[in-house]
Amino acid sequence: xxxxxxxxxxxxxxxxxxxxxxxxxxxxxxxxxxxxxxxxxxxxxxxxxxxxxxxxxxxxxxxxxxxxxxxxxxxxxxxxxxxxxxxxxxxxxxxxxxxxxxxxxxxxxxxxxxxxxxxxxxxxxxxxxxxxxxxxxxxxxxxxxxxxxxxxxxxxxxxxxxxxxxxxxxxxxxxxxxxxxxxxxxxxxxxxxxxxxxxxxxxxxxxxxxxxxxxxxxxxxxxxxxxxxxxxxxxxxx
Length: 238
Fold this sequence. Notes:
Blueprint: H1 2-13, H2 26-29, H3 32-45, H4 49-64, H5 71-86, H6 90-108, H7 113-128, H8 132-150, H9 155-171, H10 174-191, H11 197-212, H12 216-237
């Protein structure tokens, strides 16, 4: 049961860097790297994990042969880290995420969106290995950078708060997890709205924490709130 729980959490909170390179120069868009990378993302979405690894490794080889310091390589390595996390290959995930972090820090400095996302992923990967000191360091640094770059009410900060909530949940520190989950829900509701997938994901995390801590009434109230938001979201899309 615990193993399934951890796997589910990893799949929920790990972040692909699939939207960060959508404005590459025209020539770069036609490269084999982008084709392999896109195929890898599609395979992950379809849970064809063996295919995803094959595509992402091909993408990494293709771009590394051209420039081992290219941020696109860092993107692929991050996505491999996500994939390995989904497969519970945590040592491999940690290794490629560290390498991705080094490349992006060299390219962009420490105060950059890509650093935030990779640190979030590292925080989760550390936590599922019970490396909670490292997990908190990574997750809290991602939050600090997000606050510096985007401010306290930005959706990116809401995402980093959710990562910290998951780290605390995996550690069994449910009071702290609840505080960050509530903060995440509030930020998303105030920015992207009640029915947005990010808001609903954070709300589901908060509901899970209510059930874990035997607060049935609060959990049920939040579930009613979640269902109402889902119904409104479905109505809006019709």
